[in-house]
Amino acid sequence: MPKITFLPMNRTVEANPGETILDAGLRADIPIQHACGGYCACTTCHVIVKAGGAALSEIEECEEERLERANGLTLHSRLACQARVRDDVTIEVVNLED
Length: 98
Description:
With 98 residues, the chain is of the alpha+beta class. It has a single domain, classed as Beta-grasp domain (Ubiquitin-like (UB roll)). 14% of the residues lie in helices and 23% in strands. Strands 2-1-5-3-4 form a five-stranded mixed β-sheet. It is globular, with a radius of gyration of 12 Å. It starts with a strand and ends in a 5-residue tail after the last strand. The model has no long low-confidence stretch (mean pLDDT 95).
């Protein structure tokens, strides 16, 4: 099973192949914001891929357009609700829930 390491909490969790970063994180009680409920309608689940970017699904046009509005956008930014895991990856959660 693929593993996702969540920074800054430095927690590693197993993900089902094809599962989104958001779904795997929420199942493991990782505090990822998700105001729109995971429908690519906001940027609150913005994450930055630190390692293993090739292990994620390719970015689609709707995610790319939405990310253009994200604070702190980088070349390695993804939306946790859209990025599906195929292999091990390390990500930084940008917007932690309080």
